[in-house]
Amino acid sequence: MTQPTPIRRDRSRPRLLDLFSCASGAGKGYEDAGFAVDGCDIAHRPHYPFLYHQGDALDYLVRLIATGEIRRYAFVHASPPCQHGCALTVGTNASQGWGRAHVDLVAPTRDLLDRTGLPYVIEQPNGRAKIRKDLTLCGEMFGLGVIRHRNFELGGWTIEKPAHVPHRGRVRGYRHGRFYDGPYVAAYGSGGGKPSVPELQAAMGITWTDMREELTEAIPPAYSEFIGRAYLAATGTLGAVA
Questions:
Q1: CB 235 within 8 Å of CB 164
Q2: Confidence (pTM)
Q3: Is pLDDT of 85 > 80?
């Protein structure tokens, strides 16, 4: 397992707050784009490669707003838990009776982000109707080994939407007892012909964690690098951090 090279705090880099950070799929992409990244997640994340606060993300954001410390940041990314209402969760797990048991944190996250006055991104998977789909990204857009569609709501700024790229084939794995081969691996779960951890790392572009749970919850860093570079270019700060 390869650990990311630790970065020194560079005052020329705008600072980004990565909420509900998991193991830093999003954070690593923003760092590659040119941000200095601070993360926050309720779980212990020993593989998180940047400055990290363990705790409830919304409580932490409330504290940052109340103390004025939020002003140290230029941008906020938030990936609130998505199981509530997610197409995968509801469809796959409805028969087990727990597809709707999760709390929806999107609305309170948005309310707090609006209070910061900062530009932000809220990320969610397909199947969610709780955010504006200002941007949709797919692994094929970046030549990755996963499809992994993700929707992004942009607060306080805009981006030109890239065209969706047609998929080259199927996601590898079992469907209704039949195995299908294809150029993509399934970045969720662990059964039904799912990829090994090394295959998943290679497909996602994530090398610093070998925990399946962290890999399956992450977005590919290529997504947030694209978003981060677009924001920095739009605000004229890209050259300062190149």
A1: no
A2: 0.87
A3: no
**Cα–Cα distance measured from residue 175 to residue 212, given in angstroms and rounded to the nearest whole number:** 21
**What letter represents residue 102's amino acid?**
H
Question: Can you spell out the DSSP letters for 24-70?
Answer: SHHHHHHHHHT-EEEEEESS--TT--SEEEES-HHHHHHHHHHHTGG
Q: Which residues of 41-74 are buried (b: 16+ CB within 10 A; e: fewer)?
A: beeebebbbbebbeeebbebbeebbeeeebeebb
Q: How far apart are CA 241 and CA 140, in angstroms?
A: 27
Which domains does the chain possess?
A: 15-163+217-241 (3.40.50.150)
Q: How far apart are CA 90 and CA 71, in angstroms?
A: 38
Q: Residue 78 pLDDT more than 80?
A: yes
Helix or strand holding residue 204 (H, E):
helix 197-204
